[in-house]
TrEMBL record:
Protein name in UniProt: Calcium-transporting ATPase
Chief location category: membrane
NCBIfam families: ATPase-IIB_Ca, ATPase_P-type
Matching SUPFAM superfamilies: Calcium ATPase, transduction domain A (SSF81653), Calcium ATPase, transmembrane domain M (SSF81665), HAD-like (SSF56784), Metal cation-transporting ATPase, ATP-binding domain N (SSF81660)
Organism: Morella rubra (Chinese bayberry)
Family per similarity comment: Belongs to the cation transport ATPase (P-type) (TC 3.A.3) family. Type IIB subfamily.
Amino acid sequence: MSYPNRSPHRRLKNDLESGGSSNGDDPNGDGHSFLSPFDITSTKNASIERLRRWRQAALVLNASRRFRYTLDLKREEEKQRRIRTVRAHAQAIRAAYLFKAAGAQEPEDGAFKPPPPPSGDFAIGQEQLALMSRDHNVSALQQYGGVKGLSDLLKTNLEKGIQGDEPDLLKRKNAFGANTYPRKKGRSFWMFLWEAWQDLTLIILMIAAVASLALGIKTEGIKEGWYDGGSIAFAVMLVIVVTAISDYKQSLQFQNLNEEKQNIHLEVIRAGRRIEVSIFDIVVGDVVPLNIGDQVPADGVLISGHSFAVDESSMTGESKIAEKDSKNPFLMAGCKVADGSGTMLVTSVGINTEWGLLMASISEDTGEETPLQVRLNGVATFVGMVGLSVAVFVLIVLLVRYFTGHTTDTNGKVQFTAGTTKVGDAVDGAIKILTVAVTIVVVAVPEGLPLAVTLTLAYSMRKMMADKALVRRLSACETMGSATTICSDKTGTLTKNQMTVVEAYVGVENIGPPENKSELSPMLSSLIIEGIAQNTNGSVYTPEGNGVVEVSGSPTEKAILNWGLKLGMNFEAIRRESSVIHVFPFNSEKKRGGVALKLSDDQVHIHWKGAAEIVLASCTSYVDATGQLEAMDDNKMMIFKKAIEKMATGSLRCVSIAYRSYRMEDVPSDEEQLAHWALPEDNLVLLAIVGLKDPCRHGVKDAVQLCQKAGVKVRMVTGDNLQTAKAIALECGILVSDEDATEPNLIEGRAFRALSDERREEIVDKISVMGRSSPNDKLLLVQALRKKGHVVAVTGDGTNDAPALHEADIGLAMGIAGTEVAKESSDIIILDDNFASVVKVVRWGRSVYANIQKFIQFQLTVNVAALIINVVAAVSTGDVPLNAVQLLWVNLIMDTLGALALATEPPTDHLMDRSPVGRREPLITNIMWRNLLIQAVYQVIVLLLLNFGGKSLLHLERDSSDHANKVKNTVIFNAFVLCQVFNEFNARKPDEFNIFKGITKNYLFMGIVGLTIVLQVIIVEFLGKFTKTTRLDWSKWLICVIIGFMSWPLAVVGKLIPVPKTPLSNYFRRCSDFILCRPQTSRSVNHR
């Protein structure tokens, strides 16, 4: 018999095929082909071919470092191949065991002969358990006495679980192993050091340094001749070591975050109590309750289950939902519960499971790139091509000038004369020129620019953990900065998820307080308590003595169970009085759940519980407070509907409790028919309608207002009654007034579902609240919003939310209430289920983008100034004022140290005063161009004045030519570095006048600036032999400081200059279109 299509996994596939993902092979989501390999606005569903294209187009000096944190395409393909191999091997191993068992362990009578029992604490060993689990050998299980016999061998009580104290857990881990698998160690520091060596320019510089060292020692002797080559070699090694340390620290942060992602928490039953443990602490013998959406934590057998089905595609590779019952009780670790609920007995953990073997073989992370990373590779490639061209130009000019005798030393002597100059001297001169040209490439190609994204993401992800957000996908962190709308659940996200029953209608009367048992007849009280105790997946633990009663389950279940306890319910006793025949687990589509019970006198009661108006619609009678059965006429129906509406208007969640009797002979007797029996849901008798209060979270209204101020529209999508949704939306500030609470601002899920695609797109921008929505309604809403150009963030907790979480630009799963299926479909997990944490994620997303822009502005200023100064000087004088060692130090300041200082700025409230960052907006804004060009032009003018008129400006006419040149070049170098130090402050606040705001909180920034200044003083004053500098007196230092300081008032004046709203990149594009005679194409206004 085919299994009914209730699996969320199957539905996900179907919905995406029918609804159509707007990503697909077009990551821009606009249906247009991309213009550039670097134009990828979403990497969430980008094809491997597209990812390969931008890698091939990038100008890269050190591929192993540049692509370290991107998706390793080769390793990803290898990973998929390994998964297929392990799956195939698992099937082969199972077949081999079957042949082995058939040949060696089954005597002629066919009886199963288990291996001899081990000597130890347990009457069964790991080998026997593994043999049974791998073969899915039901006959072996029966030989051990079924699940009950197996539990006795494992010293487990099927109802109360294992004892669970430390000695018991230690025994089990020693006998059967821990639920962990061997993981490949992270790369050591030496690996990062080796990768930092792979930079082509640094290799060339090292070769040049060695050649210079050899020639210097040969011509000048070891005492003086080693300085030139040695200083370059030392500078290169310093760059390599600092780069490796920075990269290594980043990798440790990612490693810690990956471990956190894998640490799933779930409930187990130990000593009769339900307790939450880490998946790594599961042991053989544990009894684990499983519900729809949970991950099976280890190999085991099903103890009991209702409509229990498992998606085994993660292990078998086949999208097939497997029913689990007494005939097929074996569960495999890593699979997801697709339907129903049940409990399992753990039989194998860790490496003894097929999942453990699979994870151990593919445990190495293959990385992931982000859209910003790809775009920055494009920027780095463009800037690098310009820098490379300039370096080649400088190399040619300097070589031509040198070999044609136009290059003189500080004393005016020609450095090269054909036929006179020694070969060694000529080679040495050429090497120095080559060194300068290569160093220009090092400075000009911003190799660290794309890696700055990784740095800021690593920093942000670590800090976001403290803000209760666990990032599963790197790209989501930055995409959140572009979010234009957040579709949020109500329960637990906007509200506290702490429900209590505050009103109860029994008959047509509102009993008050709701736990007032005296107003209920014994018969009615008995039926309500029976329904509460049996129709639940929660539990009540009553400790021995006078301990506090512990209630577990979902917040709704806990609230109703607590109400039952106040009515005098003895949970364990009630559950013993009747046996469960069949269960219909609560379903978010039908919004109700039911159970069929067989009583001691062979009566059958079917209890239903769910959304008040939906269950009420199936009722044909009700029991009044005196216990009399009354017919449900139109008048009474209207009274109950008004009661529901009254409670809903008071922001209460309304739940109806109903039942009906049934004949035992009408219940299917065949086990397979019973498993697919649809519980009767007509002719119900209403027992009670309860109102549950779930107060709004503290601060949620402020968080919603902050989003609205930031241009992010908050929409509530809830399964609750429309009136309840309206009341909570008004309380949270999503709806401003009752006047707003009209269609389409406020809409019911089924009404939205019934609209055509065109009509949905017309009204979707206006929707603020959607009530009584199903997961499919949420998916339709997300698709309509994305088609309208929105960047959509969606919260979800249920298994059926997976399609919407997958389809959204950013899927936010709830860490407490969320199922494992929802979490796996999400991009970020909100650990405290709080909407305020969602808003913090928006701030962090914007912070990532802002920090990268700060770093771009700072780095490109250095690039432009250094290139122009060296080019002009090289062409005009045949010499460059900034030598190789100095340029390497500048590169270290602007690359590694600059990224650390600027890419780790914490987010500020100012970020929420802007509108969302458009995903198609240029990385370099007009404000950045203004700031960048003002500072670069200032630096170029001042430093060129010093280069050409430095001797007179610094009053060095009386000094020897050699000394005057050294002082002049030292001042140029010192002033240039100090300009960058002062400009680092400007880069912190590109559009604010107060560049010092919040600086005292950023200790890393202050530390790096302080370190840079100290090192600069040491370099100038004490390392002149290496850097070709000389000591400066206080007056020269003062001149350098004033030159650097002037960048501050200049920045203030620059910020008064207005900039056009149209991005400069648009003008460049129009110019290129005009020059190349291309037709002007209409471009979409919406760049998001």
